[in-house]
Amino acid sequence: MDKPEYTAPHRPGECPACHSANLVKVITGNDWHDTEEDEELCRAGKAVKYDGYCGIDEMPKWQCPDCKQYIHKAPAERKYIFKFKPEQCPVCNSRRIMDVIYGEPGFGGELRRQIRNGEAVSWGCCIWDNSPAWQCRDCLQDLHSSYPL
Ligand SMILES: [Zn+2]
Ligand SMILES: [Zn+2]
Questions:
Q1: Ligand 1 centre from 141 Cα, in Å?
Q2: What is the pTM of this model?
Q3: Which ligand is in closest contact with the Cα of 3?
Q4: pLDDT digits over 96-136, tens only?
Q5: Residue (of 121, 80, 83) closest to 102 by Cα position
């Protein structure tokens, strides 16, 4: 039988299955999200490359290194709305807030550099009612703008 599926709207403090506090980031091998920093985290054992099927929404965001439980990202529990790009994540206090880029960005140039540096993240072409304007790089909390995108 498959393990139960766990989801969280942002990086959980501990593994929902075994309560280990060592959750690592899952890197899905998509070139757009493969940043220098991710490579560094992998070498340091703080991130793992995903070994399963890479579907569009199927890919988990975190893994427990102790029990190997994958955790998927769930839609935000509550909506954090800001007038301007926030300086700090309201959930984990990280100051690394990424711009979410919609549409089909061309490879190369400034945007490519921003994505590789983790300053921006590309989400493909669809904007939904609940599409966030920014996302926390550390805990992946979605952050919304009070203006329409
Ligand atoms: Zn665990
Ligand atoms: Zn955060």
A1: 21
A2: 0.84
A3: 1
A4: 999 998 877 666 678 888 888 889 888 777 787 788 999 99
A5: 121
